[in-house]
Predict the structure.
Amino acid sequence: MKKFKEFRVGDKFFSTCSISEDELDEYFRFSRVKNAFLEDYGSKKQQIVSGRAALSRMEGEFTRLNQIYGNHVIFIGTDGDPEWENRSTRFLKPLHTDEVLKLQYTISGKEDIDDDYGKIAVDFEGINQEGETVLVSRKNLYRIKKEPPR
């Protein structure tokens, strides 16, 4: 685990994941998302994963990174990207269940909040198994305790 003082703007971390049909169904039940376009339960083909489900999994994988896990870290919002009219996330290609998603996390900002906490901004990028960018989310903000518990 890296401490707040060890993070540098430009640091990159990597992971992979996939979302199964069972996991997507569980997400739909929990979130209560109802979208006929995303529901294709009658067919045996892979389902399209909702963008929010993919983003949620990406954040979950971020919190499990060896460099992050163990810190007291909490998602506090997004700042948006000025180049995108202050929007923060773009869903560029569909992701289907069981497709492998390669994840890249880049520290894009870091600042002190007070003596106990700092803030890091993290850019997410998800690339499918064909090498195409599926999702980009910029300036995801996390409050992080400067000295994690022992």
In short: The two ends are 11 Å apart (CA to CA).
